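During the second half of the funding period, the structural biology subgroup turned its attention to how the target accommodates small molecules. The most pressing case was flavin mononucleotide, which had performed well in the primary screen but for which no bound structure existed. We therefore specified the complex as follows and requested a full 3D prediction, including the ligand pose.
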Amino acid sequence: MKVIAIIGSPRKSGNTEMLASHSLKALAEEGIEVEIISLAGKEINFCNACMACSNQEECSIQDDFQEIYEKMKLADGIILASPVYYGSCTALIKAFIERAGYVARFNPQTLRGKVGGALAVARRAGHNFTIAQLDLWFNIVGMIVPGSTYWNIAFGREKGEVSKDEEGLKTAWNFGKNMAFVLKKLKS
Ligand SMILES: Cc1cc2nc3c(=O)[nH]c(=O)nc-3n(C[C@H](O)[C@H](O)[C@H](O)COP(=O)(O)O)c2cc1C
C-alpha cells in the first residue's frame, strides 16, 4: 500500500512539509510506503475549462500536473497539506485540486474509495476553513476521510516552527495512524 502527501506550500521544506512528513512517518511505521510530493517549484497552471478531460483522463495543459495525477491514480491514500494563505489554502494547491477534481469527475472510479485527508499550518488563524476546503474536495471525488484526535491543524510561521507545536504534531501523527487503520480494514 502507498500513501502520497501533496504539499501546497511554495516554500520547500517548510512547516507544511514537516507536518505532513510526521503523518507519513506514522504510516510508514505501519508498513505503508510513503512519498512526499512538493508543489514548490512545480509549474501548476489553473484550469482553463477547455473540457478536454471529458474525453480523456488527461489534462490538456502541458505542465507538471499530469505526472502528479498519475501518482494519485496509483496511490491507495492521498494527503493534501497546505499552509494558510489569507484564510484559505494556497492558490497553488487550489489550482492543482481544481484540475485533479475535474479530470477525476469524468473518470469517477479513479479516486473513489481511496483514503485521504487534509492538513493545514498557519501562523495564527484560518486553519479550519483551509482543511474544510480540502476535505470537501475529498468528499466530491468519493474518497474516505478518517478523523484524528483533533482537527488536522498546527501552528508555525518561520520554517521549522511547527516542530514546537506538540499537539499539532500529535494530531498529524494520530491522523496517519487512523489512515493506516482504515487502509488495512479496506484491504483485508
Ligand atoms: C501570502 C501569505 C499569506 C498568509 N496568510 C496567513 C493567514 O491568513 N493566516 C495565518 O495564520 N498565517 C498566514 N500566513 C503564514 C503561513 O501560513 C505560515 O508561515 C506557514 O507556517 C507557512 O507554511 P510553510 O512553511 O509550509 O510555507 C501567510 C503567509 C503568506 C506567505
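Two results from this model are relevant to the next phase. The beta strands are 2-7, 33-38, 77-83, 115-122, 153-155. The chain is about 40% helix and 15% strand.
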